[in-house]
């Protein structure tokens, strides 16, 4: 039996990590490695041990050495101008995993996404960003995009010069995808003749972003607040589209990884998130089950969250 | 008639030293060459053909209703395609003036002969130019084309064109001005007078393709009668020493419409002072002037635009937008709105000058485009956006131009 290296949603206080049940079963390829789903389940505990529930017994496997994430960020410290925005950030997102980033306004969440994508005038002071085993810390934005990174930023700039339909055609040519059905599903058809994001509503902008991502078909999707400025009706469209983007349309297709910033948590109703982080003042202070984290924050705010004994702040 | 011509000549003589209101000053007489030095006219093959193509002229005349081709001072070609005989006339202006005595009534009516020394010089040393007349009710479903080519170095063209769109007619003209590659310096004075009669529609596209040592002074004017429509497209994508032009359309008939579209790309040390004046004199007239400019190298671009409303029901809009592609380039946008005793007229303007948006480039790069691809995509779009019904040949030219742009200087 082979185990694909993944890290799933463990909690720091979970003992054997049983409550941090993950989607690990999807990554068990079965004895012959043909990709059939075996019935065994994997969970991860707080250390690098995996618990394999096989029949009546529990088998422990140490995967520390084989863990190779889709994205690994190691000790990343980032400056914008003279200010340190991100400090010593480390995490790993495995193939097919979706991680959620929570945190108050101005905590550095968007900067983290932009740093991973290589956007903005940011200075990497120390640390590494590794994507599919390649150090991309010094690569340009377009090189990262062509390797399989994709981003939907929170507030897209207006590009009146470029019509959405024309851009979709160019992207489709580049990435070899068919986009007409995605455009219909995202209700983008009426936007195709318009300049990109020019006088788009919040929902229109998000849908246009997702359409581009669907054509681009990246392996790691970075999404900054998919629900911001979007009304309830559109949240469902955006949420479902994001979910289908992450899952991939074909069964054979490997699910994508994702890192999603959310403020409201609505997106958790649509996307199967594996792990959550809380960022405060440029540091990741907590990680765990995204729903648990969000529940605490929803009830007690980030103030309450920071009072937690496990907070690394 | 003799008398009228004498008066015109006298007015020209008096204005021969009058500098133009705008643009760098030079002496047009420096580009007058003696007769014996003139190049022998060629045929429409080889280098002439290449140059013609660059100005949007199709030597094969596919999909053209008629053509006019002038090399330096010689008319090489003037012909109406067979299917369009009886719908349109095309001939050299000399021939037309000899044929139609009434044409003198149109001579210097839309452009004053004493506007400046360039109009004056063009009158006193005029050689060639075309006469195009679309006959009443004729609706041409294919464009007419003309090409004014300069093949001699340090020479000049002094052209006078008259275009008459008779009542209820409809036509499109693509007019190219170009040089062969060996020509580096020269002067072009081009007078174009447009008369668009009741209910007529005329779309006129001028493509300029000059060399780096050329001074160009087009002087255009249009007079629009009731319900007439005039669309004037201007495109300049090649380097030039200086161009100054400020065509004027007078909408004197009610319900007349005019639109000036300009696509200007400044390179090298080019000085480009380009604008338009729309006089919305009659009721329900509509005027629009839209300019898009990109300044590279050490070029200097001045975008002018002036709307004058003389009727309460007149509406006009100006839009000048420019991007700077080099730290040495300069750009000015000078929109002017003037209402003359028509307090309910509506005139608006929008002007913007700035660099290409770094954020937009990065946005496209995040989709996998290289920096150059992203910039060229933005510039292509920028130059074309808002300019409705751009002929296909121009779209292609703009696309090709945008592909050559690099943002190295920024």
What labels describe this entry?
heterodimer, A: alpha/beta, six-stranded mixed sheet, 15 strands, 26% helix, disordered N terminus, B: 410 residues, alpha/beta, six-stranded parallel β-barrel, 18% helix
Sheet with most strands: strand arrangement of chain B: 2-1-5-7-9-11-14-17-19-21
Q: Helix/strand-derived class of chain A? A: alpha/beta
Whole-number mean pLDDT of chain A: 78
Gyration radius of chain A, rounded: 19 Å
Regarding quaternary structure, what we see is: heterodimer
Main sheet of chain B? 10 strands, mixed
Q: Note the overall shape of chain B.
A: globular
Task: Extract low-pLDDT stretches of chain A.
Answer: 1-67
Low-confidence stretches of chain B: none
Q: How does the major sheet of chain A shape up?
A: 6 strands, mixed
Instruction: Name the beta content range of chain B.
Output: 35-45%
Using only C-alpha atoms, the radius of gyration of chain B works out to 21 Å
Largest inter-chain contact set:
A-B, 27 and 21 residues
Which structural class matches the secondary elements of chain B?
A: alpha/beta
Distance between the termini of chain B: 59 Å
SSE string of chain A, helix = H, strand = E? EEEEEEHEEHEEHHEHEHEEEH
How many alpha or pi helices of chain B?
7
Number of strands of chain B: 21
Compact overview of the structure:
With 313 residues, chain A is α/β, with parallel strands linked by helices. Chain A has helices at 109-117, 141-147, 164-175, 180-185, 202-216, 232-247, 290-306; strands at 41-44, 49-54, 57-62, 71-80, 83-93, 98-102, 123-131, 134-135, 149-152, 159-163, 195-196, 220-224, 257-261, 275-280, 283-288.
């Amino acid at each position: 039996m082979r185990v694909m290296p993944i890290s799933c949603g463990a909690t720091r206080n979970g003992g054997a990590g049983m409550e941090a049940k993950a989607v690990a079963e999807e990554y068990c390829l079965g004895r012959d490695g043909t990709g059939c789903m075996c019935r065994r389940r994997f969970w991860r505990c707080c250390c690098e041990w995996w618990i394999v529930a096989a029949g009546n017994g529990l088998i422990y496997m140490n995967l520390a050495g084989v863990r190779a994430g889709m994205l690994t960020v190691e000790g990343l410290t980032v400056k914008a101008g003279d200010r340190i925005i991100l400090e010593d950030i480390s995490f790993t997102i495995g193939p097919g995993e979706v991680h959620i980033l929570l945190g108050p306004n101005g905590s550095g969440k968007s900067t983290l996404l932009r740093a991973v994508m290589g956007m903005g005038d940011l200075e990497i002071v120390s640390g590494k960003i590794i994507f599919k085993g390649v150090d991309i810390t010094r690569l340009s934005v377009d090189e990262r995009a062509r390797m399989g990174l994709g981003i939907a930023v929170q507030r897209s700039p207006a590009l009146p010069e470029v019509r959405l339909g024309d851009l979709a055609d160019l992207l489709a040519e580049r990435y070899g995808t068919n986009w007409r059905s995605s455009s219909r599903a995202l209700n983008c058809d009426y936007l195709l003749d318009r300049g990109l994001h020019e006088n788009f509503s919040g929902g229109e902008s998000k849908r246009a972003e997702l359409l581009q991502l669907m054509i681009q078909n990246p392996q790691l999707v970075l999404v900054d607040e998919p629900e911001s400025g979007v009304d309830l009706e559109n949240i469902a469209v955006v949420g479902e589209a994001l979910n289908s983007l992450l899952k991939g349309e074909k069964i054979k297709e490997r699910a994508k990884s994702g890192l999603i910033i959310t403020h409201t948590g609505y997106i958790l109703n649509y996307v199967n998130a594996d792990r959550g982080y809380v960022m405060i003042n440029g540091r990741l202070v907590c990680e765990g089950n995204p729903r648990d984290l969000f529940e605490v924050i929803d009830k007690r705010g980030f103030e309450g969250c920071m009072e937690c004994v496990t907070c690394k702040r | 008639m003799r008398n009228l011509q004498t008066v015109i000549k006298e007015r020209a003589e008096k204005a021969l030293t009058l500098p133009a209101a705008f643009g760098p000053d030079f002496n047009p007489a420096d580009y007058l060459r003696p007769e014996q030095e003139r190049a022998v006219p060629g045929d429409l093959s080889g280098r002439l053909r290449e140059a013609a193509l660059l100005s949007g002229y199709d030597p094969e005349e596919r999909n053209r209703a008629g053509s006019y081709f002038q090399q330096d001072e010689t008319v090489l070609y003037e012909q109406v395609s067979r299917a369009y005989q009886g719908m349109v006339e095309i001939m050299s202006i000399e021939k037309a003036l000899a044929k139609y005595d009434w044409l003198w009534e149109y001579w210097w009516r839309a452009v004053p002969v004493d506007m400046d020394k360039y109009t004056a010089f063009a009158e006193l040393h005029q050689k060639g130019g075309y006469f195009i007349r679309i006959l009443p009710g004729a609706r041409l479903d294919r464009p007419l084309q003309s090409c004014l080519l300069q093949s001699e170095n340090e020479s000049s063209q002094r052209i006078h064109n008259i275009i008459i769109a008779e009542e209820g007619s409809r036509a499109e003209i693509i007019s190219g001005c170009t040089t062969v590659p060996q020509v580096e310096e020269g002067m072009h004075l081009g007078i174009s007078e447009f008369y668009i009669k009741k209910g007529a529609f005329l779309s006129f596209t001028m493509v300029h393709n000059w060399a780096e040592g050329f001074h160009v002074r087009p002087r255009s004017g249009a007079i629009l009668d009731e319900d007439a429509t005039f669309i004037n497209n201007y495109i300049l994508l090649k380097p030039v020493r200086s161009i100054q032009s400020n065509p004027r359309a007078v909408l004197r008939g009610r319900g007349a419409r005019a639109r000036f579209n300009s696509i200007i790309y400044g390179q090298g040390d080019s000085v480009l002072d380009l604008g338009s004046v729309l006089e919305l004199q009659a009721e329900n007239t509509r005027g629009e002037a839209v300019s898009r400019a990109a300044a590279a190298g050490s070029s200097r671009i001045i975008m002018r635009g002036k709307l004058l409303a003389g009727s309460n029901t007149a509406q006009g809009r100006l839009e000048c937008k420019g991007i700077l592609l080099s730290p040495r380039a300069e750009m000015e946008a000078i929109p002017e709105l003037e209402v003359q005793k028509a307090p309910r007229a509506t005139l608006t303007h929008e002007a913007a000058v700035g660099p290409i948006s770094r954020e937009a480039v990065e946005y496209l790069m995040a989709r996998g485009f290289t920096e150059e691809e992203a910039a060229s995509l933005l510039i292509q779009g920028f130059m074309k956006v808002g300019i409705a019904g751009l002929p296909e040949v121009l779209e292609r030219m703009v696309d090709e131009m945008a592909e050559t742009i690099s943002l190295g200087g920024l």
